[in-house]
Specification:
By secondary structure, the chain is α/β, with parallel strands linked by helices. The protein has 2 domains: 88 residues, no CATH class; 416 residues, TIM Barrel. Strands 9-8-7-6-5-4-13-14-15-16 form a 10-stranded mixed β-sheet. Strands 1-2-3-18 form a 4-stranded antiparallel β-sheet. It has a two-stranded antiparallel sheet with strand order 10-11. Strand 1 and strand 2 form a beta hairpin. It is globular, with a radius of gyration of 23 Å. About 7% of the residues have low confidence. It binds iron/sulfur cluster (2 copies). One iron/sulfur cluster binds next to helix 14.
C-alpha cells in the first residue's frame, strides 16, 4: 500500500522517542507535533513507514488527510524572508570595562577583551540612522545593552533611551529595552529608567551564594552575591513591569544545578531563567564519546560521570562543561514542580520556547536573528552580525558610517538549504545552530558544532517528555510574553500554519494525544 509521506525517514523526518515510563512518542519534523503511539507502531516507525501494518497505514492516512501529520514547516520556511519572525534588534556594546573577575571569562570565541573603549555620541547617531533604514514591518526595535558591564557607561545608555523617545515621536517606531548586567553597580537614575521603560533586566547570576561566590567574584576576589541580590530587590521594588531574568552559566556541579535554581527561585525576584553551559578546557570533556539519551535519574547521572572520565577531542581548546547535560536532565525531572502561585517564576526561557513550538504549532526560521534582524554596534563603529564576533574583522557586516556592506548570505541560510541540517529531525525547532559556536568548534560558520546539536536535541527530547508526563496543565501555560523576551539571541519564530490541535478521532488504535 502506498501511503502519503511514505518516503519519510526515521531520524530525519520524524523521530520515535521512548520514555522511561514505557510510553512511545512520535515527533513529526514536518510540523513540530508530538503524538503518542502504541509500542508496536513505534517499533514499525523506527524500521520505516514501509513496515506499517494495513491497520496502522490506514490510521496514518487518516491523520495525513486531517492535516495532523503534515510538512507545513517546509512550506512556511520556503515562503518566509529573513526579516520575518523577529523585530529589528540592536546590541549596543557600551563599554569594555567590567568589575567582576568571573572564573570562566577566558573562553576563545567569547566577546571578552574584544571591545575597546566606551561608546560615544557619534556611534549613537549611527545607530539611529541604521534603525531608520532597517526597521522591519513590525515597526518595533529592541535594544540589547551589553558590555563589559554596560552600567559602567550609564550616561550613554541613558542618552540612547532619551533619543529613542524623540525617535518614537518622529517615526512611530516602538522600542523594547533589555540589558545584560551583573547588577553590581547601580548608577543614579537607573532604577527610574528601568521602571519607565519597562526594562527586561537580564542579571548574570550563576546560582545560590556558594556557586555565585565561586564563579563570579569581584576583580579583587571578594564576593558578589549579597550585592547582586540586594540590587535585584531594589529593581524588583522599582516596578512590577520590570522583567527580571536570572542568566545562569553552569560550570561544574559542586552545587547541583537543581539546587541553584531552587535557591534563586526562593527569593521570588526572578520572572524567568536562562541556563547556559559554561565553556571549559576540552581536556575536561568527553562529550564526543558519550551519547546522552532521554533516560533519567541514575542513567543521566551515570552518563555525566562517564563523560567526566572519558577523553576528548584534542583538536578543540574549549568546550561545554562536562557536567552540564546530566544536570539539565535532572532539572527537567523537577521542572514543572518549580511553578507555584505565590512565586513570580514563569519558566526557563529556552524550555518554554520549545514547548510553545510543539504545543502551538510554531517553528524557528533560524537559530538566531544574527545577520538577519540583529546587529551589534561597538565603540569602534563596526557593525557585526553577532555580538560574540566583535573584533573578528572577516565577519564584519559594515560600519556605522557606511551601513551594511558585507555579503550576509551565510547568516541567512535556511535549514532546508543546509546539507546537514536538512537531514536533522529537530531542524524546524533548532533553526540551524549558533554560527559563532560553529565557527569556534569547526572553523566554519555553517558547519554544525556537534556539542550544540546534542544539547538542542536533548532539550527537544526533554520538553516532549515533560509535555507527555505533565499533561495539559503544563502544556497550556501562558507563553505569550515570550515574543518580547529575545529568547536565544532573538530566534525568529512564526506560526507554521499546521492544522490546529483537535481531539484525535476516538476510534484510533495506534495514535493518541500525549497531553
Ligand atoms: S544545528 Fe545541529 S541540531 Fe540544529 S538543525 Fe542543524 S544539525 Fe540539527
Ligand atoms: S546565536 Fe550565536 S551566532 Fe547567533 S547572535 Fe547569538 S552568539 Fe551570535
Amino acid at each position: 500500500m502506498t501511503i502519503p509521506h511514505g518516503d519519510w525517514l526515521h531520524g530525519e523526518d520524524y523521530r520515535i522517542l521512548e520514555l522511561p515510563d514505557g510510553k512511545v512518542l512520535l515527533f513529526i519534523t514536518g510540523n513540530n507535533r508530538v503524538l503518542g503511539v502504541s509500542p508496536q507502531l513505534g517499533g514499525h516507525l523506527r524500521e520505516g513507514l514501509h513496515t506499517l501494518t494495513p491497520d496502522e497505514s490506514k490510521e496514518w492516512c487518516r491523520l495525513v488527510e486531517q492535516g495532523v501529520i503534515s510538512d507545513s514547516n517546509r512550506h512556511r520556511l520556503a515562503s518566509s524572508t529573513f526579516s520575518d519572525g523577529a523585530n529589528l534588534a540592536i546590541n549596543v556594546n557600551l563599554t569594555a570595562l567590567c568589575n567582576l573577575g568571573c572564573t570562566y571569562c577566558f573562553a576563545d570565541g567569547g566577546d571578552y577583551g574584544r571591545i575597546k573603549g566606551k561608546m560615544g555620541s557619534q556611534t549613537v547617531g549611527y545607530i539611529f540612522d541604521f534603525i531608520r533604514e532597517h526597521v522591519t514591518d513590525t515597526r518595533a526595535v529592541r535594544f540589547e545593552f551589553f558590555g563589559g558591564e554596560p552600567l559602567l557607561n550609564f550616561d550613554c545608555m541613558k542618552q540612547i533611551c532619551d533619543d529613542s523617545d524623540a525617535f518614537r515621536r518622529e517615526s512611530g517606531v516602538e522600542f523594547i529595552y533589555r540589558i545584560s548586567t551583573n547588577l553590581t553597580v547601580m548608577p543614579d537614575g537607573v532604577l527610574d529608567l528601568f521602571a519607565q521603560k519597562k526594562f527586561i533586566v537580564s542579571v548574570s547570576i550563576d546560582g545560590g551564594r556558594e556557586t555565585q561566590e565561586h564563579n563570579r567574584p569581584t576583580k579583587g576576589g571578594g564576593g558578589s552575591f549579597d550585592k547582586v541580590i540586594a540590587n535585584c530587590r531594589r529593581v524588583r521594588e522599582a516596578g512590577d513591569d520590570i522583567t527580571l531574568v536570572a542568566r545562569m552559566t553552569v560550570v561544574g556541579d559542586r552545587v547541583p544545578l537543581v539546587d541553584n535554581v531552587r535557591e534563586l527561585i526562593a527569593y521570588n525576584l526572578f520572572d524567568y531563567f536562562q541556563i547556559y553551559p559554561g565553556v571549559v578546557p576540552a581536556s575536561h570533556n568527553g562529550i564526543f564519546s558519550t551519547v546522552i539519551t532521554i533516560g533519567r535519574g541514575a542513567t543521566a547521572r551515570n552518563a555525566g560521570a562517564q563523560m567526566r572520565k572519558t577523553g576528548s577531542d584534542s583538536s578543540r581548546k574549549n568546550t561545554v562543561d562536562p557536567s552540564f547535560y546530566a544536570q539539565v536532565v535532572e532539572l527537567f525531572e523537577i521542572y514543572p514542580t518549580l511553578f507555584s502561585s505565590g512565586n513570580r517564576f514563569r519558566g526557563v526561557l529556552e524550555y518554554e520556547r520549545f514547548a510553545e513550538m510543539i504545543v502551538h504549532g510554531k517553528m524557528a526560521l533560524s537559530y538566531c536573528s544574527g545577520g538577519r534582524n540583529y546587529y551589534t554596534f561597538s565603540p569602534d563603529d563596526s557593525i557585526m552580525p553577532c555580538h560574540r564576533l566583535v573584533g573578528e574583522t572577516e565577519f564584519q557586516g559594515g560600519s556605522g558610517k557606511g551601513g551594511l556592506t558585507a555579503d550576509l548570505s551565510a547568516w541567512r541560510l535556511s535549514v532546508d538549504e543546509h546539507p546537514t541540517c536538512s537531514k536533522c529531525w529537530i531542524r524546524y525547532v533548532c533553526g540551524g545552530g549558533c554560527k559563532q559556536e560553529n565557527y569556534v568548534a569547526t572553523g566554519s560558520l555553517t558547519t554544525p558544532n556537534a556539542e550544540m546539536c546534542k544539547s538542542q536535541i536533548l532539550l527537544v527530547e526533554q520538553v516532549a517528555r515533560m509535555l507527555s508526563e505533565r499533561g495539559r496543565s503544563y502544556a497550556n501555560r501562558n507563553r505569550v510574553p515570550l515574543e518580547d523576551l529575545f529568547v536565544s539571541c532573538g530566534r525568529p519564530v512564526v506560526m507554521n500554519l499546521r492544522q490546529p490541535d483537535a481531539t484525535l478521532p476516538g476510534d484510533l488504535h495506534h495514535f493518541y494525544s500525549p497531553y
